[in-house]
Amino acid sequence: MTPLVVGVTSHRDIPVHEIEPIRQRVRDFFAQLQRDFPHLPLVVLSALAEGGDQLVAEEALAVGARLIAPLPLPRDLYAEDFVDPAVRARFDTLCSQAEIVLLPKLMATPRHAIGSPGGARDRQYAKVGVYIASHSHVLLAIWNGKAEGRLGGTAQIVNYHLTGTLPGVIDRHRLTRHVLGGGDESLLYHIVCSRSGDDGGPAADLRPLQVGWRSAETTMLHDKLPADFQLMFAHMQELNADSEKYAADIEAAPQAPHGVPSAATASIDRLFHDVDWLAVHFRKRVLLAMRLIYTLAALMGIAFAFYAHLPAKDYLIYVFLLMFASGGYLAMLARRRGWHRKYLDYRALAEGLRIQSCWWRAGISASADHEFAHDNFLQKQNIELGWIRNVMRAASLYPSSHVEEVTPAALADVIEEWVGRSGVSGQLHYYECKTIERTGVHHVTEMIGSISLWGGIAISVYLAVFALVLSEGTKISLVMIMAVLSIVAAVRESYAYRKADRELIRQYRFMQRIFSSARAALDRTQDPVEQREILLSLGDAALTEHAEWTLMQRERQVEHGKL
């Protein structure tokens, strides 16, 4: 199931008298999340540092949440930071109950460089903070609200979460994810605390133990979760509910084979299988509803034409109204149950997960400490689609905690499975087939239109030539044939427009072209570094195209009143 991921950043030196009130506010926060989103299991990311990190981890375990602990240093070095024996004992206890994440880039740093306090060690803490903020749906900050400049400190992690910038670690991110994304992923729950020592009080506009929600677009704390995020989390819950509802059918469906199974991407691959099945399921429902509605529309037009031209056929107006009501009911049912939206969202999510899995198995995701496929996907779209990135963000947690070495065989397998070969396998073959299929369907639509046009012209010419000798009944029959031809052609054209046949042909040709180019480029080199760069560029292009496809298709819902 897709979880709701809560990351933690906190001061270490919280005054003793504020500890228990803060603990109660953390309990209230978790209770609120579980009450509002009962179908989203909680996952808490905490570095288990002294102070609020450990406090939140303890409360997370108490409410049954899954605890994941990204550590900034190898565990033995990290433990040296805990001078107080009681704090160190809590750290050991929490480690035994948590899933420990050892980030490859962090752990590759020489021990002598991080063995004592200094800039290198602070950078480790900063990168773990970036990891937590990047993977969190909600960042829980136990913070005094002051913009203090310590590298990797709570203030900087909050600033990174809200703006995408962390001086000395991340700078360019400001102009990509957060600006284009409109801050739609930056949700903060702030518990205001003090700090021990002089001038340890909170910022001037805050008071100790104050709580509230904040996003990148607001500076004030609000009592209620913003409506946009409420909708985002509701869609995540909906995915879990659909997965549970169709669990038996999903389990029975065959899974796409992987040449080299990977424990690191097992979670992503399993989620991809579920979401891919759901996308196909709702696509079938959408197509069935559209075909029924457009068939009814054609029959409505024919019934009305007959009613208008044939005498003593008054019952046809009731047939017309009955079919109109039936089509309206189908359109309303499809809209209320969200079949079209679910189909598009689940398809977009499935394609994002496919690329995420392939990148990871090819050794691409492991090349950065914080960026994953979700950072590049649907960034220019509205916040309602942000839930797709949130699901991808949560799915990437599992690979991070199950590091595997990428072998040449695994890279080659990803290339053959994902890119494939022309006429044989992979996405290249898939888009070749879809291009041919859609082109054929479009030709059928054009042929129906041509038959209607030339049939209508022929009948018009015939009527003009023989107008004086044809009986009234024959004229009416010929006019009715013209009406039926026109109605069928118009409905077929409208159906093709709603399915976006022309646009899909262009998209499939574009995707076929980029996968073909990627295949040719991959065949020209045996250098794994170059091959990964090609796969990275291919994935970026595919993610962008899938985002555009989702946006385009969302405008093509069946609207009964326009038929």
Structural class: alpha/beta
Proportion in helices = 55-70%
What is the beta-strand fraction? 5-15%
Low-confidence stretches: 171-183, 366-374
Order of helices and strands: EHEHEHHEHHHEHHEEHHHHHHHHHHHH
Number of helices: 21
How many domains make up the 3D coordinates? Answer: 2
C-alpha Rg (nearest Å):
30 Å
Average pLDDT works out at: 83
Give me the count of strands: 7
Adjacency order of strands in the biggest sheet: 4-3-2-1-5-6-7
| Main sheet summary | 7 strands, mixed
| C-alpha geometry | elongated
Separation, N- and C-terminal Cα atoms: 39 Å
Walkthrough of the structure:
It is a single chain. The protein has 563 residues and is α/β, with parallel strands linked by helices. The chain has 2 domains: 4-225, Rossmann fold; 266-562, no CATH class. 62% of the residues lie in helices and 6% in strands. It contains 21 helices and 7 strands. It has a 7-stranded mixed β-sheet, sandwiched between helices. Strand 2, helix 2 and strand 3 (66-70) form a beta-alpha-beta unit. It is elongated.
